[in-house]
Amino acid sequence: xxxxxxxxxxxxxxxxxxxxxACDLHVSVTEPNDAVDLYRRHxxxxxxxxxxxxxxxxxxxxxxxxxxxxxxLGENHPDGVELGxxxxxxxxxxxxxxETLDAVRDLRMSGEIYEPRDDYVLxx
Length: 124
Prior knowledge:
- By secondary structure, this protein is α+β, with helices and mostly antiparallel strands.
- 44% of the residues lie in helices and 21% in strands.
- It has helices at residues 3-11, 32-46, 66-74, 83-91, 97-109, and strands at residues 16-20, 25-29, 51-55, 81-82, 113-117, 120-123.
- The strands form two sheets. Strands 2-1-3 form a three-stranded antiparallel beta sheet.
């Protein structure tokens, strides 16, 4: 790869790094929802959960409860909180990506949250 290609790749913004401890997967993701897409594909093929290793964007919440965290993040994201951002925020509090997505599905089915667009959610 030419040097200018390496420089362009290095300058590309990253949302963070997602890993799978079971199979040594280690992937940089550009957007927070890329981590969710990776989780879905990887879990479907291997049955493994992936986790955030490093997050390069602000995603701090004070709770490990999905609805509470979503309410908190929704204050700064009125058009919807990316599932990847929610998963990253909860990962800091010990909640796995798969657990977050399961809780989101349950909350959506109970009508407590809605999806204004694909993979973006808000509390009703």
